[in-house]
Structures are given as structure tokens and as C-alpha cells.
């Protein structure tokens, strides 16, 4: 614990982040919580500081979708068009017209399934890591996804469903599928079926008064390496609740979600998923495909992203899965992912460890934050 507190304090002193919060646990309970720095001027960062968890939302939305699969309302491998008519006839981007630059499209060769959406093999992409999608959005006036407008979901596919792993908006569509079959807004479903039963009281799409008193500022790293606060907030009255990245929460809350997975779908008597469904979600669903490097198209939003370079990575429903043991760190078969504002988690069923780390800064995959994550994880296992 002392080593981790020193690590965080040193990181803040060296300008890694303005504030950092971490927690780690196992299947039985919390092993540690720590924080350093400030969430706002004069306000200390803490394990209950509220942060935008961004794409760490995806695994929570996926969990709600898998609950509907268990109830027979959704299927993993049937065409999702039966639930989402907007995806009945998806088109694949093939290029741009020589004159005028109009996007050229063709019909997809196979239907999209829920499994495709959850594993990022549907063909949907993000403009942050795909310049062609950025060009389509510019040509057609499609808004960015963080604005939570339905028009942001009208981008074409960049590959046929099932052909390759491409990080994108698939889980936003999965969240809309959950809404369709439940007849409720996604936030209500999450609150009633996942967040509430798991005791994640500070997690939600909308910031309540209690959360605002503990909310962290967002920051951006300038060219000189310094961090400055920037205005940022996910829309609080959104056109659609962004299942791929709209939640706010705390590291303390998110560890409870991670520990549910260490316990194969249950935590403190609350059964969220059956053990069989949890096992299905935790296995690599994309082999022989693999997770490929994400090359930035918007450097202000993200660096290039390649976790564990040189190692094959698979994807579950919906987690990154490392194929090999990482010496001194997570075992093969661990689950992990992250959020755009440099928040990260891992879940290691084999070694019974999970950890969460949060800053609030852009661009994503900050090398200094990743080095701190690495040191934090090593300290957790050494302890």
C-alpha cells in the first residue's frame, strides 16, 4: 500500500496527471484504495471521485444485453435486424468518388448479429482511429458520437460483418437493442438490473447533485507536456443514452463490477449472469481474428493504441483478452479495457485479481499514464 501511494504521489509530482485514483481487489473483497493529486483546484482526488468512464461503459452495456439473451429477448447469433430495423440493410464503405469525394457504398454480404456488435466485428468504426469514417462524417455532416445524437450512428461499415476486428460504435447499437426489447431507456435498465444490484450507486448517465460535488475536471495535455483543465460534459439530456461510452462513475464502483466477473456473474448474493453466460463472455469470441493496433486519426483525442505489442489479443463480450501471461502482471485469459479519458481496468480470473485506475485527461493512451498503470499493476501482484 505504501509503495502504491508513493507511486501515485510521484506520478502527480512528475505531471503524469492532475489527479489519479486506483483500487484493486479479489473475488472476496477490496484489497486497496488510494489516490493522489486533485480532481479540481483545492479538491483532492479520492476513490469516490466521479469521473467519466467513457468506453468502460461498454462492458456494463454488454452485460445488460447478455441478460436479455438469457431471458430469450435477444440472440447472440441471429440477425440483429429483427430487433433493430435500422440495421436491416447495412452498407460497406468502398471508397470515395474521384469527383466530389462522395462516399461509395455497397450492401454488406451478411447480416449483423449481437455477437458482432459486442466483439467489434460488425464493421462499425470510430473516426478517432479511422480517417475514412471521419471523411464520411465530414462529407455528410454526421455529428461526433459524444454528442449522443442518433445521427452519429448513421456511419457505414468499413468491413463486412465478421471479417475483421475494428473498434467502433457497435455497443451503442447493442444498447439500443436492449432498449427495444425492454421498452425502457438504457440507463433505467442498467440501474435496475446491473448497477443497483451491484451497489454501484455513483454510476449513471446523468450526474446527480451528490455526484457533482465529487466530479473531476477534465484536462488536456498540451504540446509542452503540461495539463490544463478544459470544458467537458457528456450531454445530460441526450437523444440516446450512449451505451458505448456515456457513463460517469468511480473506481470504487467499477471494482464491484470487476469483482462480479471474478465471481463468474455474481457478487454479494446478487446474481447478474449465469455462470455459463459469464464463461461465454470471458472467452475469446473472435479467433482466428485478433485485436489490431489502433492508429490515431485525431491526435488531440488519442495516441496510437497497442496494448501488449507483439502478443496476440482476442476479444470477448466485450473485453480485450491477452493470449499469454504477462510476467509479474496479469495471467493469460485476463479481461481488460479502458476509457478515452485515460481510465483503465483489468480482471484476472486465473490469479483472482482486478484493478481500476482513473485520471481525467486527453489524449487517450497517454504513455505516462500507461507506465503508471503498468507500475500499479505490478505492485498489486507483488503485494
From TrEMBL:
Residues 6-373 form the Beta-lactamase-related domain. Gene3D superfamilies: DD-peptidase/beta-lactamase superfamily. Pfam families: Beta-lactamase (PF00144). Coiled coil: none annotated. This is 1,4-butanediol diacrylate esterase. It comes from Paracraurococcus ruber. The lineage of its organism: Bacteria, Pseudomonadati, Pseudomonadota, Alphaproteobacteria, Acetobacterales.
